[in-house]
Each structure stands twice: as structure tokens, then as C-alpha cells.
């Protein structure tokens, strides 16, 4: 791993190339305060299926004019550490970035923020996957181009440009403005289908010894 941000820590990376990091290239863990990546390139990093190129568990994270491409694992994962109590959900701003030819472009499992004017292109599984946000979180999508994602589908991924994990989340926590450009309209899973899909995913991870 190239960069770790831990308890009350902060980091700023400008004009960096992070290439062939064996696990995450950059991670802000539970308790981390802030992370900024400006004009960085991250490629050939992460390890599928359980280590994304960038991991955000805490704090405020800003990515601007970055390229996250050709990673064998997921590009960006935003998800709290379930083992940590009383932590605030992560907040993200991702602006003018390219997420291209990763396994999954980006997954947001907890946390809120803004995705503005990004290009999410040709990721093998899903371009953007949003899971079950809580009522205190809101995620806004504005001016993004999300196209040609989901060519490789599996039991743990249904493919497509964007999937919102359940109807309740889509109605209450996810704002998708009209100026986004999708090659396929975002899919919203009914709550019962989402629960079944998550059960299938957990079963798959158990067989891989990753549960």
C-alpha cells in the first residue's frame, strides 16, 4: 500500500502516479480525518475481490482531476468499518475524475456527498453501485458521463452503468440530476430482490473464505 490515513490523520497527494500497488493504493481508515487527491493517476492497483484501489472508511475525502484506470479490483469503495462504533459516515466529493476499465468503477455502501462531472467508462462489472445509505446521508450525482459499463456479469454483479441497491434508498438518499449521461438508465432493485442479491453475494464470499 502506498498511502494510509489513520486516527485523526490527514493527507494531500498532488500530481502523483500510483502504479502496481499490491493491495489498496490509498486508504483512509476509521478515525481518519481527511484525504485529498489532486491530479493523481492510480492504475494496476488493488486485489479482486476484496481490496479496492481506493478505500474510504471515514472523514472527508476529495478527489479532483484524478484518473483511476486499469485496476483489476474496484476503483473506489466508500464503506464504514462495521467494527467501529459511533463513527461518522464518510463524506466524499469526486469531481472531474475518470474511472475507467476497473472491475467496478465505484461502490458507495455508506456515506454521502457529491459526484460532479466525472467520466465512468468501460468498467467490467458495474459503473456505480450504491447500497443502503442511512436517512442522515445524501448522495448527489450531477453532470457525470456513465457509459459502456457492465460487460462482465457474475453472481456478485448484475452489470450496468448504475445500480441503486433498493427502492427506499433511491427515493430518499440518492439524487440523480437530469444532466447525467448514461448509456443505460440507472437500475433500482426492489427491496426483496436486493435482499436476495446480497444473500447471494455473502454466500459467494463465504465460499472464497472472505466473509
Write structural notes for this entry.
It is a single chain. By secondary structure, the chain is mostly beta strands. The chain has a single domain (3-207), classed as Pectate Lyase C-like, CATH 2.160.20. The chain contains 2 helices and 22 strands. An 8-stranded parallel β-sheet has the order 1-4-7-10-13-16-19-22. The chain is globular. The chain starts with a strand and ends with a helix. The model is unreliable at 200-211 (pLDDT under 50).
- Count of strand segments: 22
Query: What number of structural domains do the residues give?
Result: 1
- Helix fraction bin: 10-25%
- Gross CATH architecture: 3 Solenoid
* Beta-strand content: 35-45%
Distance between the termini: 22 Å
Widest sheet, order of strands: 1-4-7-10-13-16-19-22
CATH names the topology as Pectate Lyase C-like
What is the H/E order?
Answer: EEEEEEEEEEEEEEEEEEEHEEEH
Quick one: CATH class? Mainly Beta
Largest sheet: 8 strands, parallel
Low-confidence stretches: 200-211
Instruction: Determine the number of helices (DSSP H or I, runs of at least 4 residues).
Output: 2
Helix and strand content put the structural class at mainly beta
Please tell me the overall pLDDT: 85
Calculate Rg over CA atoms: 16 Å
Q: Choose one word for the global shape.
A: globular
Amino acid at each position: 500500500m502506498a498511502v494510509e490515513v489513520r486516527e485523526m490523520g490527514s493527507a494531500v497527494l498532488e500530481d502523483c502516479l500510483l502504479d502496481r500497488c499490491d493491495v489498496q493504493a490509498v486508504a483512509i481508515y476509521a478515525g481518519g480525518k481527511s484525504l485529498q487527491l489532486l491530479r493523481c493517476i492510480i492504475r494496476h492497483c488493488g486485489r479482486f475481490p476484496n481490496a479496492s484501489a481506493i478505500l474510504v472508511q471515514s472523514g472527508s475525502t476529495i478527489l479532483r482531476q484524478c484518473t483511476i484506470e486499469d485496476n483489476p479490483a474496484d476503483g473506489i469503495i466508500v464503506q464504514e468499518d462495521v467494527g467501529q462504533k459511533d463513527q461518522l459516515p464518510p463524506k466524499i466529493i469526486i469531481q472531474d475524475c475518470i474511472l475507467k476499465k476497473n472491475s467496478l468503477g465505484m461502490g458507495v455502501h455508506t456515506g454521502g456527498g457529491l459526484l460532479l462531472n466525472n467520466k465512468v467508462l468501460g468498467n467490467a462489472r458495474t459503473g456505480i453501485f450504491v447500497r443502503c445509505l442511512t436517512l442522515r446521508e445524501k448522495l448527489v450525482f450531477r453532470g457525470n458521463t456513465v457509459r459502456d459499463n457492465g460487460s462482465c456479469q457474475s453472481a456478485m454483479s448484475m452489470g450496468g452503468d448504475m445500480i441503486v441497491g433498493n427502492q427506499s434508498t433511491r427515493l430518499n438518499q440518492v439524487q440523480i440530476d437530469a444532466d447525467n449521461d448514461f448509456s443505460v438508465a440507472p437500475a433500482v432493485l426492489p427491496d426483496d430482490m436486493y435482499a436476495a442479491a446480497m444473500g447471494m453475494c455473502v454466500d459467494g464470499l463465504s465460499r472464497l473464505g472472505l466473509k
